[in-house]
Every structure is written in structure tokens, then in C-alpha cells.
């Protein structure tokens, strides 16, 4: 039986935390900032934790 391979695209985008969660960069941060408020731009900086509904799917991709 061959070994599982990690999904490399997911490994580059998501980082696993110590408690088993996943953190990633926010969406809507690449362009068109003139349509966003200063508060929205400020809150989109940095990283955020992944929603628990999609956590299982992406955890399997990273642990293979």
C-alpha cells in the first residue's frame, strides 16, 4: 500500500495550530480596496481561523 501524500496546495495556504485548528489568510485582500472601508481593510490584515464546518476536509488533505 503506498504512502499518502500531503496536498501541497493546501499545505502552502493553511497552517496547523497547536490545538488542531487551521489558520489562513483572509479573502478579499488582493485588489479593489477603494470599495472597502478602513475598518474592513484593517480587519482583513493578518490571519484568521478556519470555520469548523470545513475544518475536517482540509485537515484530511494536510494529514495524508
From TrEMBL:
Gene Ontology CC annotations of this record: cytosolic large ribosomal subunit
Query: GO annotations under biological process?
Result: translation
Leader sequence residues: none
Q: State the Gene3D superfamilies in the record.
A: 4.10.410.60
Family annotation (InterPro entries): Ribosomal_bL35 (IPR001706), Ribosomal_bL35-like (IPR021137), Ribosomal_bL35_CS (IPR018265), Ribosomal_bL35_sf (IPR037229)
Keyword set for this entry? Ribonucleoprotein, Ribosomal protein
One example of the protein's molecular function in GO is: structural constituent of ribosome
Q: Family membership, please give it.
A: Belongs to the bacterial ribosomal protein bL35 family.
Q: Which HAMAP family match?
A: Ribosomal_bL35 (MF_00514)
UniProt name for this protein: Large ribosomal subunit protein bL35
Q: Where is the organism placed in the taxonomic lineage, from the top?
A: Bacteria, Bacillati, Bacillota, Bacilli, Lactobacillales
